[in-house]
Design brief:
about 30% helix, Glucose Oxidase, domain 1, alpha/beta, 7 helices
Protein backbone atom coordinates (compact mmCIF):
# COMPACT_ATOMS: atom_id res chain seq x y z
CA UNK A 1 0.00 0.00 0.00
CA UNK A 2 1.39 3.49 -0.81
CA UNK A 3 2.75 5.46 2.13
CA UNK A 4 0.14 8.19 1.75
CA UNK A 5 -2.79 5.78 1.57
CA UNK A 6 -5.69 6.47 3.88
CA UNK A 7 -8.00 3.97 5.48
CA UNK A 8 -11.69 4.77 5.42
CA UNK A 9 -13.52 4.83 8.71
CA UNK A 10 -15.03 1.45 9.55
CA UNK A 11 -18.59 1.22 8.34
CA UNK A 12 -21.29 -1.36 7.93
CA UNK A 13 -21.83 -2.45 4.36
CA UNK A 14 -25.34 -2.07 3.05
CA UNK A 15 -27.36 -5.19 2.34
CA UNK A 16 -27.81 -6.34 -1.27
CA UNK A 17 -31.47 -5.36 -0.97
CA UNK A 18 -30.61 -1.82 0.13
CA UNK A 19 -28.05 -1.45 -2.66
CA UNK A 20 -30.62 -2.67 -5.18
CA UNK A 21 -33.12 -0.13 -3.86
CA UNK A 22 -30.57 2.67 -4.29
CA UNK A 23 -29.94 1.60 -7.88
CA UNK A 24 -33.63 2.10 -8.66
CA UNK A 25 -33.36 5.78 -7.69
CA UNK A 26 -31.90 8.52 -9.90
CA UNK A 27 -28.89 10.48 -8.66
CA UNK A 28 -30.67 13.88 -8.36
CA UNK A 29 -33.15 12.29 -5.97
CA UNK A 30 -30.28 10.68 -4.04
CA UNK A 31 -28.67 14.13 -3.77
CA UNK A 32 -31.98 15.59 -2.55
CA UNK A 33 -32.26 12.87 0.08
CA UNK A 34 -28.73 13.41 1.37
CA UNK A 35 -29.46 17.14 1.73
CA UNK A 36 -32.28 16.43 4.19
CA UNK A 37 -29.76 15.14 6.75
CA UNK A 38 -27.68 18.35 6.76
CA UNK A 39 -24.44 16.39 7.01
CA UNK A 40 -22.49 18.56 4.54
CA UNK A 41 -22.82 21.66 2.33
CA UNK A 42 -24.99 21.05 -0.73
CA UNK A 43 -22.11 21.80 -3.10
CA UNK A 44 -19.96 19.00 -1.66
CA UNK A 45 -20.05 15.30 -2.49
CA UNK A 46 -21.50 15.75 -5.98
CA UNK A 47 -20.01 16.04 -9.45
CA UNK A 48 -20.21 19.17 -11.57
CA UNK A 49 -21.54 19.57 -15.10
CA UNK A 50 -18.28 18.47 -16.77
CA UNK A 51 -18.88 14.75 -16.20
CA UNK A 52 -20.10 12.65 -19.14
CA UNK A 53 -21.96 9.36 -18.77
CA UNK A 54 -20.98 7.37 -21.85
CA UNK A 55 -23.57 4.61 -21.39
CA UNK A 56 -26.72 6.24 -19.97
CA UNK A 57 -28.86 3.25 -20.92
CA UNK A 58 -27.08 1.21 -18.24
CA UNK A 59 -28.96 3.13 -15.58
CA UNK A 60 -27.57 3.76 -12.11
CA UNK A 61 -24.54 2.09 -10.59
CA UNK A 62 -23.82 1.92 -6.86
CA UNK A 63 -20.53 0.82 -5.35
CA UNK A 64 -17.77 1.42 -2.83
CA UNK A 65 -14.91 3.51 -4.19
CA UNK A 66 -11.57 2.04 -5.18
CA UNK A 67 -9.50 5.15 -5.74
CA UNK A 68 -6.42 5.69 -7.88
CA UNK A 69 -4.37 8.45 -9.49
CA UNK A 70 -3.07 8.30 -13.06
CA UNK A 71 -1.03 10.52 -15.35
CA UNK A 72 -1.73 10.58 -19.07
CA UNK A 73 0.01 13.71 -20.29
CA UNK A 74 3.61 12.56 -19.78
CA UNK A 75 5.51 9.27 -19.61
CA UNK A 76 6.00 7.39 -16.35
CA UNK A 77 9.35 7.71 -14.64
CA UNK A 78 11.73 4.85 -15.37
CA UNK A 79 11.51 3.55 -11.80
CA UNK A 80 7.80 3.10 -11.23
CA UNK A 81 6.44 4.57 -8.01
CA UNK A 82 3.62 2.07 -7.62
CA UNK A 83 3.01 -1.64 -8.07
CA UNK A 84 0.21 -2.49 -10.48
CA UNK A 85 -0.13 -5.96 -8.97
CA UNK A 86 -0.59 -4.49 -5.47
CA UNK A 87 -3.23 -2.18 -6.93
CA UNK A 88 -5.05 -5.09 -8.54
CA UNK A 89 -4.86 -7.15 -5.33
CA UNK A 90 -6.25 -4.22 -3.38
CA UNK A 91 -9.34 -4.01 -5.57
CA UNK A 92 -9.88 -7.76 -5.61
CA UNK A 93 -9.67 -8.06 -1.82
CA UNK A 94 -11.86 -5.05 -1.00
CA UNK A 95 -15.52 -5.59 -0.10
CA UNK A 96 -17.88 -4.98 -2.99
CA UNK A 97 -19.54 -3.97 -5.08
CA UNK A 98 -16.70 -1.74 -6.21
CA UNK A 99 -16.66 1.41 -8.36
CA UNK A 100 -13.31 2.72 -9.59
CA UNK A 101 -12.77 6.46 -9.07
CA UNK A 102 -9.63 7.62 -10.85
CA UNK A 103 -8.12 11.10 -10.97
CA UNK A 104 -5.97 12.09 -13.93
CA UNK A 105 -3.40 14.61 -12.70
CA UNK A 106 -2.64 15.84 -16.22
CA UNK A 107 -3.75 19.38 -17.03
CA UNK A 108 -5.06 18.03 -20.33
CA UNK A 109 -5.56 14.27 -20.78
CA UNK A 110 -2.87 12.87 -23.03
CA UNK A 111 -4.69 9.61 -23.72
CA UNK A 112 -7.16 7.12 -22.28
CA UNK A 113 -6.19 4.82 -19.41
CA UNK A 114 -9.57 3.13 -19.74
CA UNK A 115 -10.45 1.00 -22.75
CA UNK A 116 -11.41 -2.57 -23.58
CA UNK A 117 -8.48 -4.25 -21.82
CA UNK A 118 -8.47 -2.20 -18.61
CA UNK A 119 -12.23 -2.45 -18.30
CA UNK A 120 -12.11 -6.25 -18.55
CA UNK A 121 -9.29 -6.36 -16.00
CA UNK A 122 -11.26 -4.27 -13.51
CA UNK A 123 -14.45 -6.24 -14.09
CA UNK A 124 -12.53 -9.41 -13.26
CA UNK A 125 -11.37 -7.72 -10.04
CA UNK A 126 -14.93 -6.80 -9.07
CA UNK A 127 -15.37 -3.23 -10.32
CA UNK A 128 -18.66 -2.23 -11.96
CA UNK A 129 -17.40 0.88 -13.71
CA UNK A 130 -15.15 3.92 -13.54
CA UNK A 131 -15.55 7.60 -12.80
CA UNK A 132 -12.53 9.49 -14.14
CA UNK A 133 -11.72 13.07 -15.03
CA UNK A 134 -9.52 11.55 -17.73
CA UNK A 135 -10.69 10.06 -21.00
CA UNK A 136 -11.90 6.65 -22.19
CA UNK A 137 -11.98 4.74 -25.48
CA UNK A 138 -13.10 1.45 -27.13
CA UNK A 139 -16.71 2.43 -26.51
CA UNK A 140 -18.38 -0.33 -28.53
CA UNK A 141 -16.27 -3.08 -27.00
CA UNK A 142 -16.70 -1.80 -23.44
CA UNK A 143 -20.42 -1.21 -23.83
CA UNK A 144 -20.89 -4.89 -24.64
CA UNK A 145 -19.29 -5.84 -21.32
CA UNK A 146 -21.69 -3.74 -19.22
CA UNK A 147 -18.82 -1.83 -17.58
CA UNK A 148 -19.97 1.73 -16.82
CA UNK A 149 -17.99 4.73 -18.14
CA UNK A 150 -18.15 8.21 -16.59
CA UNK A 151 -15.41 10.45 -17.97
CA UNK A 152 -14.30 13.86 -19.19
CA UNK A 153 -14.37 12.71 -22.78
CA UNK A 154 -13.13 10.22 -25.34
CA UNK A 155 -9.60 9.72 -26.72
CA UNK A 156 -8.33 7.73 -29.69
CA UNK A 157 -4.94 6.89 -28.17
CA UNK A 158 -3.86 5.66 -24.76
CA UNK A 159 -1.00 8.14 -24.96
CA UNK A 160 1.18 8.04 -21.85
CA UNK A 161 -1.59 6.97 -19.45
CA UNK A 162 -0.19 5.10 -16.47
CA UNK A 163 -0.93 4.40 -12.79
CA UNK A 164 0.72 6.69 -10.22
CA UNK A 165 -0.92 5.91 -6.85
CA UNK A 166 -3.93 4.16 -5.36
CA UNK A 167 -6.05 3.96 -2.20
CA UNK A 168 -5.86 7.69 -1.48
CA UNK A 169 -8.30 10.62 -1.63
CA UNK A 170 -9.03 11.87 -5.14
CA UNK A 171 -11.02 14.68 -6.69
CA UNK A 172 -13.00 14.20 -9.90
CA UNK A 173 -15.34 16.81 -11.35
CA UNK A 174 -15.29 18.78 -8.11
CA UNK A 175 -16.24 15.75 -6.00
CA UNK A 176 -13.77 14.58 -3.35
CA UNK A 177 -13.80 10.82 -2.87
CA UNK A 178 -12.09 8.79 -0.16
CA UNK A 179 -11.34 5.06 -0.39
CA UNK A 180 -14.47 3.01 0.33
CA UNK A 181 -16.88 5.94 -0.01
CA UNK A 182 -20.30 4.82 -1.20
CA UNK A 183 -21.00 6.25 -4.67
CA UNK A 184 -24.21 6.49 -6.68
CA UNK A 185 -23.90 7.48 -10.34
CA UNK A 186 -26.10 7.65 -13.42
CA UNK A 187 -26.54 9.83 -16.51
CA UNK A 188 -26.91 12.96 -14.36
CA UNK A 189 -23.58 12.53 -12.56
CA UNK A 190 -22.39 11.07 -9.26
CA UNK A 191 -22.97 11.63 -5.57
CA UNK A 192 -21.20 10.37 -2.44
CA UNK A 193 -23.63 8.88 0.06
CA UNK A 194 -22.20 9.39 3.58
CA UNK A 195 -21.91 6.10 5.45
CA UNK A 196 -23.58 7.52 8.57
CA UNK A 197 -26.87 8.02 6.74
CA UNK A 198 -26.60 5.48 3.91
CA UNK A 199 -29.10 3.08 5.49
CA UNK A 200 -31.65 5.91 5.83
CA UNK A 201 -31.50 7.30 2.31
CA UNK A 202 -34.14 5.04 0.75
CA UNK A 203 -36.70 6.06 3.40
CA UNK A 204 -35.77 9.72 2.92
CA UNK A 205 -36.36 9.32 -0.82
CA UNK A 206 -39.85 7.99 -0.13
CA UNK A 207 -40.65 11.12 1.90
CA UNK A 208 -39.31 13.37 -0.87
CA UNK A 209 -41.29 11.58 -3.56
CA UNK A 210 -44.51 11.89 -1.54
CA UNK A 211 -43.95 15.64 -1.15
CA UNK A 212 -43.13 16.07 -4.84
CA UNK A 213 -46.18 14.06 -5.87
CA UNK A 214 -48.44 16.47 -4.00
CA UNK A 215 -46.95 19.37 -5.95
CA UNK A 216 -47.17 17.61 -9.31
CA UNK A 217 -50.72 16.41 -8.66
CA UNK A 218 -51.74 19.98 -7.89
CA UNK A 219 -50.05 21.29 -11.05
CA UNK A 220 -51.94 18.81 -13.21
CA UNK A 221 -55.32 19.26 -11.55
CA UNK A 222 -58.19 21.69 -12.10
CA UNK A 223 -57.68 22.87 -8.53
CA UNK A 224 -54.31 24.44 -9.36
CA UNK A 225 -53.65 27.87 -7.95
CA UNK A 226 -50.51 29.81 -7.13
CA UNK A 227 -51.70 30.21 -3.55
CA UNK A 228 -52.04 26.44 -3.05
CA UNK A 229 -48.72 25.79 -4.81
CA UNK A 230 -46.96 28.26 -2.52
CA UNK A 231 -48.16 26.27 0.49
CA UNK A 232 -46.49 23.08 -0.79
CA UNK A 233 -43.08 24.40 -1.80
CA UNK A 234 -40.30 25.17 0.68
CA UNK A 235 -39.47 28.87 1.17
CA UNK A 236 -35.86 27.94 0.29
CA UNK A 237 -36.83 26.97 -3.26
Amino acid sequence: MPENATQANPHQLLSPENLAALRRICSPTIANAVETFNVRPRSEGVTNCEIRCLFPAFGAVVGYASTAVIMSGQPAVQKRLVSRTEYWEHIRNAPGPRLSVVQDLSTEPGGAYWGEVNSNIHMALGSLGVITNGTVRDLDEVQRTGFHFFARGVSVSHGFAHLEEFNRPVNVFGMTVYPDDLIHADRHGAVVIPHAIAHKVVDAVSEIERAEKRMIDLCTSDAFSIAELDKLISPEY
